[in-house]
Amino acid sequence: MESAFIELDGVEKVFDVRKKTGFMRREKHEVRAVDGISFTVPRGEMVGYIGPNGAGKSTTIKMLTGILTPSGGRLRVAGIDPSRERTRLARRIGVVFGQRTTLWWDLPLIDSYRLMHRMYRIPDERFAQNLDRCVELLELADLLDVPVRQLSLGQRMRGDIAAALLHDPEVLYLDEPTIGLDVISKAKVRGFLRDLNAESGTTVLLTTHDLTDIEQLCKRVMVIDHGRLMYDGALSGLHEVGESERTLVVDLERELPPIEVESARVVKVEGPRQWLAFPAAESAAPLVARIAAEYPMVDLSVREPDIEAVIAKMYAEKVTS
Ligand SMILES: Nc1ncnc2c1ncn2[C@@H]1O[C@H](COP(=O)(O)OP(=O)(O)OP(=O)(O)O)[C@@H](O)[C@H]1O
């Protein structure tokens, strides 16, 4: 079994675009959508792939599926060069684009699945098993006879996820799988993906603008901007890279002047409650002990930094890992 299931080494994608620069005049210029990206993903891992609009996420996924050919570098998925052997790879990967459906719009959901059964030449027994499992876990039983165009966005998304899994792919690329979904549908999709990864060991690459998806599903996250990898590591490590702060909320017995303590500063006071900011990378325990020793503390809580703020700061500062 290969240890790195997805492998990118210095992968580049350059688009030649013609820009109108005046009447009848067009200038050719290059867009480096992906600018030398290297990473590996071992089998069974669930990784977040995030970045601002136009960062190069979709272009990377399109290269991983073989839709686009890299302009440079080396790329392998399950040992296969995607753009050279796209059909062979298609049997081993599943793709869900949140903003587009792979289902047949006018057909009942079940008919799309039957078409995929034939297209992917899925053995009958395996198809039946996978369909049963998806119908149960994604709660599709009442929807199978409904034409896709009549489904709500959340229902359609669950239908699309099932469609991507009928042929037992070893890797699933998800591009914005929770976009536009309500809170309950999001929770259902996330729960399903978590179970899928834990039980079937499916490798998942998840692109999303909703950082809660990442927080709830991925231990590892890669941040891309301007076609370059800016961060690759644990989600918790992003706080340190972003030099963010955590907040200690302290309830005192009574209103007192701002607490004075080493390695933290008071950022807000409201009656007997005070908010102290301290470096996210440091443990709260010694700080709490110091405050408890000198002040009449009755309660406390620690607030984690807002991950969205950390990432926004990273983009702004162009921090490289
Ligand atoms: N076919 C194409 N021709 C020319 N430029 C392209 C093409 N596809 C993408 N680009 C450009 O490449 C860059 C990266 O685009 P890409 O769609 O990969 O970004 P993204 O991170 O997926 O963004 P979003 O979050 O908005 O989907 C952008 O500047 C985009 O305009």
TrEMBL record:
Domain ABC transporter: 6-251
Bilayer topology: Peripheral membrane protein
Single GO molecular function: ATP hydrolysis activity
InterPro entries registered for this protein in UniProt: AAA+_ATPase, ABC_transporter-like_ATP-bd, ABC_transporter_ATP-binding, P-loop_NTPase
Subcellular localization, as worded in the UniProt entry: Cell membrane
GO biological process assignments: response to antibiotic
Family matches, as PROSITE patterns: ABC_TRANSPORTER_2
SUPFAM superfamilies: P-loop containing nucleoside triphosphate hydrolases
Transmembrane segments: none
UniProt keyword terms in alphabetical order: Antibiotic resistance, ATP-binding, Nucleotide-binding, Transport
Presence of keyword ATP-binding: yes
SMART domains: AAA
A Gene Ontology term for the protein's cellular component: plasma membrane
Manganese keyword on record: no
Protein name: ATP-binding cassette domain-containing protein
Organism: Streptomyces kanamyceticus
Phylogenetic lineage: Bacteria, Bacillati, Actinomycetota, Actinomycetes, Kitasatosporales
